[in-house]
Amino acid sequence: MSEPVVVVGAGPAGLMLACELAMRDVPAVLVDPHPAQRLEAPAMAINAGTLELLDQRGLADGLREGTVTFPEVRFADLPLAFDKVPGPREATHMVLQSRLEKTLIDRALELGVDLRWGTRLTGFEQAPDGSRVTAVLVSDSGEERLTCRYLVGCDGRDSLVREGAGIDYVGDDWVIVRGIVGDVAIDRADVAPEQYGLSYTPNGDQFLGAPLNPGTMRVFSAEFTTRPPEFEDGPATLEQLGAVVRRLTGTELKATEAHWLRHYSIITRNAERYREGRVFLAGDAAHVHYPYNGQGIGTAVGDAVNLGWKIAAEVHGWAPEGLLDTYHEERHAAGRMACMNIQAQLALLYPRALARYMREMLAEFLTFDDVNVFLAELVTNLGPAVPMRYEGFPEPPERDRLLGRRLPRARVKTASGEVAVAETLHGGRGVLLDLSGHTGGPDVDGWTDRVDVVRAQPVADWPATLLLRPDGCVAWHDGAGWGEDVLRAALTTWFGAATG
Questions:
Q1: Which of 63, 77, 145, 490 could disulfide-pair with 476, CB 3.0 to 4.6 Å?
Q2: Distance between alpha carbon 59 and the CA centroid of its chain, in Å?
Q3: Helix or strand or coil: residue 309?
Q4: Of the candidates 232, 267, 302, which is a domain's last residue?
Q5: Do 254 and 307 belong together in one domain?
Q6: 496 and 325 in contact (C-beta within 8 Å)?
Q7: Secondary structure class of 150 (helix, strand, coil)
Q8: Could you read off the pLDDT of 422-481 as tens digits, one per residue?
Q9: Domain for residue 466, yes or no?
């Protein structure tokens, strides 16, 4: 095997990145210190943006099956009019993190990822000439020094990769959330009405009870404090959970057994940079925040899909200069927006009674469609848009709703039949989507080894031709007043020089 990319941490970011690399014939070694997949994963929602990314790789259909959808999108518990977001778009689905991870594990193994459970990264060093990284891996088989092209830390908020790269984890602790999360055995008839769904106390503290099956309920509490939490050693207990539920709902929790429970506390951090030479950060290693609106998994999967095709372009030798630098530029901004909007939501929730005037004012702002749409896209990982600017050419109109975003869910009619736009991205390549009705629109001569051409019938309100990056972002379209000269600039910017 040629020098692989080593990915540390088999959570959503690490698993998705390993799949993104392997589907492009880049050898990937994924290491995780746990002996097998952890089923004690707290996240339980996948929002619209995450589902769209998974749909682009053919991974969403199985996750949708048998799930409950959340009809509302909220900002600090204030309802947003999600139907005003240009669409159609996905609803948020209740999908346990463990189920998503199992889907990604199966896909990674199918693609040939070298997945090594029970393997810990203990250190690494970059070659003085910047040509490679040597990772030190320890397992029951002993110590191994593995030379790799790139090292990616997806190893969580206490990331050894981030620490070893000397990257600061910047943030503040002015609001700390602490709570208990886990699964308990309880007869559905014994669940009090106050313990179903998401509820808030006047002080903004939260409790969530979600049935997973007739005899099991996922529980999640969140209490706000200005002091660091002081938990007892060891795992959370059923007695501790019972006290929390009484405090937050006023009713007794009649659970008979805890399948698993965990204390947690949340800080807000965004790494100073997401790249140091050949070392990258993704997921919680890059940014950590309260897991509101499904944004935790959304930002993690977004990191992986953004980084995967760019590393593959470097490995296969066609990446234009500076392509890998755009990972930090684009995803650091996304991480910052996630941290910022969630901190703002926490400020509006804690203490909720004292924030009532801010909440009333925001409710007034939400009557303006632009404000409503901006926040709805932000909290569902549909926005903000990735800037698309090309040197020497005028910028597109400020209110362009397509550039830098993924297209809404739609099906297009090709000569061989109807196909979903997301399906055109299953191969992980760029796509020139020609919707001129087979009239012979622009081509991608010189880029056909990196970009597919899909010709289809026109779609109402869409431009005649669009260029999609491998992550689904619209990089160019002719409805922005840009001609084929800008198309060639976009192709060169994202896919390198033309060949032939």
A1: 490
A2: 14
A3: helix
A4: 267
A5: no
A6: no
A7: strand
A8: 999 999 999 999 998 866 778 899 999 999 999 999 999 999 999 999 999 999 999 988
A9: yes
Cα(20)–Cα(472) distance, integer angstroms? 13
The answer to whether residue 105 is domain-embedded is yes
Do residues 124 and 67 both lie within one domain?
A: yes
CA quadruple 152, 155, 156, 158: dihedral sign: negative
Q: Concatenate the DSSP letters of all residues of 153-218 into one string.
A: E---TT-HHHHHTT--EEEEEEEEEEEEEEEEE--GGGS-GGGSEEEE-TTS-EEEEEEEETTEEE
CA separation for the pair 85, 107 (Å, rounded): 31
The CA distances from residue 388 to 48, 210, 391, in Å, are 22, 41, 10
pLDDT digits (tens, 9 = 90+) for 361-397: 999 999 999 999 999 999 999 999 999 999 999 888 8
Report d(CA 232, CA 243) in Å as an integer: 14
Query: In this structure, is residue 384 part of a structural domain?
Result: no
Q: Which burial class, exposed, middle or buried, applies to 355 when counting CB atoms under 10 A from its CB (0-12, 13-18, 19+)? A: middle
Cβ burial of 359 (10 Å; 0-12, 13-18, 19+) is: middle
Q: Which domain holds residue 164?
A: 5-168+272-341
**Assigned domain for 34 exists:** yes
DSSP, collapsed to helix, strand or coil, labels residue 498 as coil
Q: Are 80 and 383 in contact (CB under 8 A)?
A: no
Q: Which residues contact 192 (CB under 8 A, 6 or more apart)?
A: 249, 251, 252
Q: Are 64 and 133 in the same domain?
A: yes
Q: Tell if the pTM clears 0.85, that is, is over it.
A: yes
Q: Is the dihedral of CA 208, 211, 215, 217 positive or negative?
A: negative
Question: Per the structure, how many domains does the chain have?
Answer: 3
Structure tokens at 340: 């910022």
Co-location of 223 and 146 in the same domain: no
d(CA 500, CA 489): 17
302: three-class secondary structure by DSSP: helix
The set of residues, in sequence order, having a beta carbon less than 8 Å from that of 443 and lying 6+ positions away, is: 432, 453
Q: How many CB atoms lie within 10 A of CB 81?
A: 14
Asked whether residue 230 falls in the same domain as residue 178, the answer is: yes
Q: How confident is the model at residue 188 (pLDDT cuts 50, 70, 90)?
A: very high
